[in-house]
Amino acid sequence: MLTDQIKATFKDAARKLTGQKKREFTAQVALDYFNGSARKTEAAMGWDRRSIQRGLDSLRTGIPYQDNYQARGRKKVEEILPRLVEDIRALVDDEAQIDPTFGSEFRYLKVSAQAVRDALISQQGYNDAELPSRQAIGRLLNRLGYRLRKPSKRSH
């Protein structure tokens, strides 16, 4: 029915589209060339049948399928461990120093992210498995407005 050249052209066009536009395009190909069958379109073109069906439903009803991009990806550590932020602040607020030149709003810490992580385990009752890595603790400290700074070496 469709030549290999036409299939390649359709596949190339679909590859350049995303989201709703891609679903509508694949659905229109299904309607025009495969009697509106998502299964036949999947077999012939190699596209995802569910996506084609969503496009067909969207064309039929006029209501676009809602993508849920916000639900993708890894949740921030603050969402996974809600009391972690308060516990970190309780540990480091006494150690934090404000920039003496007032050049930034950051508070500087003389403790490392690993030391904060170790203190969470020893003082706040967390266990090693539930806490994120040292790097993740460092990123969280940065989001909270803290910057890690090595203690300055003083000469006597």
Descriptive overview:
The structure is a single chain. This protein is mainly alpha-helical. The chain has two domains: 4-61; 77-148, no CATH class. The chain has eight helices and three strands. It has helices spanning 4-16, 19-33, 38-45, 49-61, 77-80, 84-92, 113-124, 134-143; strands at residues 97-98, 107-109, 146-148. Strands 1-2-3 form a three-stranded mixed beta sheet. A hairpin with an 8-residue loop joins strand 1 (97-98) and strand 2 (107-109). Helix 2 (19-33) crosses helix 4 (49-61), helix 3 (38-45) crosses helix 4 and helix 7 packs across helix 8. The protein starts with a helix and ends in an 8-residue tail after the last strand. 15% of the residues are buried.
Q: What topology emerges from the helices and strands here?
A:
Elements: H1 4-16, H2 19-33, H3 38-45, H4 49-61, H5 77-80, H6 84-92, E1 97-98, E2 107-109, H7 113-124, H8 134-143, E3 146-148
Parallel strand pairs: 2-3
Antiparallel strand pairs: 1-2
Helix pairs in contact: 1-2, 2-4, 3-4, 6-7, 7-8
Computed over alpha carbons, the radius of gyration is 27 Å
Average pLDDT, rounded to a whole number, is 86
How many angstroms does the end-to-end distance come to? Answer: 88 Å
Given helix and strand content, the structural type is mainly alpha
**Sheet with most strands:** 3 strands, mixed
Order of strands, main sheet, comes to 1-2-3
Question: What tags apply to this protein structure?
Answer:
2 domains; 54% helix; 156 residues; mainly alpha; 3-stranded mixed beta sheet; single chain; elongated
